[in-house]
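Prompt: For my understanding, could you write out one protein's sequence and backbone structure tokens?
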Amino acid sequence: MEIWRQKGSSWEDVKHANVAVVLSAIRRFGPISRTELAELTDLTSGTITNVTSRLLELGLISEAGQTASRGGRKRVLLKLREEACVAIGIEISRQHVFGVLANLNGKVVSRAEEATEPGEGPVRTIARVVQMIDRFKEEAAGLECPVIGAGIGVPGPVKTDEGIVTTPPNFPGWRWIRLKDQVESRSGLDVLIDDDARTAALGEAWFGAGRDVESLVYMSVGTGIGAGVVVEGRLYQGAHGLAGQIGHASVDPFGARCECGNVGCLELFASSPGIVQLARKRLQEGEPSVLHEYEKAGDLTINRICESAEAGDLVAASVMETACTYLGTGVANVINVYDPQKIVLGGSLVRAYEMLVDRVRAIARERSFAHGGETPQIVRSQLGKEASALGAVALVLERFFADPLAAMSKAQVGEASKS
């Protein structure tokens, strides 16, 4: 992957840019010597010496032994001090608030989860988020680590620049909520907001199944269906911040109307609520199934349907096959539109139904346009339920590594203001 170096318009800009380039190189390729850094970044040996000295002073890097001698002087190796700072990542879903405290390499230091009440609305949920952030800040203080910010993944659409949750379907009360401003004002941290599927995509790109590719599409399949698109290691937002809304692509132009206003959306057929509705319709047709007992007991859930399908119940298996066919078709459309190197499937439904990825992979390959017989890899998420929260951490780290000097200065000002 090419190291990109920004040309600043002033000496101060150049200094900040050089520090960013060197620290990013150490993070990705360390342990690494100063000589190798100069070759990799095309900076002079003098500049490398000055920059690495500053990074050592800030505590962002440390020495990591020496290279073996080949007749000359041994070279000192440098590595990222991953414990130097921490970031907070939060996922707001329709069922819970889940958060992580992670270091500069995305290693999770602490986790927290709190269930939300059905339809509780943004006021209570935001209070939960702020309380969780406060707990993480206390833990960071105990570790003597500055917190460099918080990221939040939330059901979209989201206006990322303004940090506004606009009109997420099936999320009562969440209409034009200024989430960034509310959390920043109450937590005292800089906050970054994005669609939860996009943060999950970034999490997989930084720390999970997408670390070996430049482009991927992450598809989250659960209560809703969303996607995040990563191109050249960066999230693709689209002109209006709507890239990746695959759940609201119409797969049946004569289908039922979705809450989003469209008709025949993929979410209606392949999300967890859509699958439960399809199962109820099949049960009304009178076919014998263990699902009748769950329906009578008021316990017909997506997990019950998945378990029954895997146990061989014919109705449950047929319902899941229908959902996989729709989802596989949606994945094929994603392949045809974005042509990524990899598709990563995640979300609660993927975790609940073991056979889903294999079936979707087969259907997508049948229905996608393949160049020279090649199709993208279609794989399961490596990060599981932590994908969106870790991607929210990656939002913060992305900003941090773009300008470490500014970030550390702000963090130190923040620490000083508390003392």
The chain has three domains: 11-80, 86-203+387-418, 212-381. Residues 86-203+387-418 form a domain with the Nucleotidyltransferase; domain 5 fold (CATH 3.30.420.40). The longest strand covers residues 96-103. The chain has a mean pLDDT of 90.
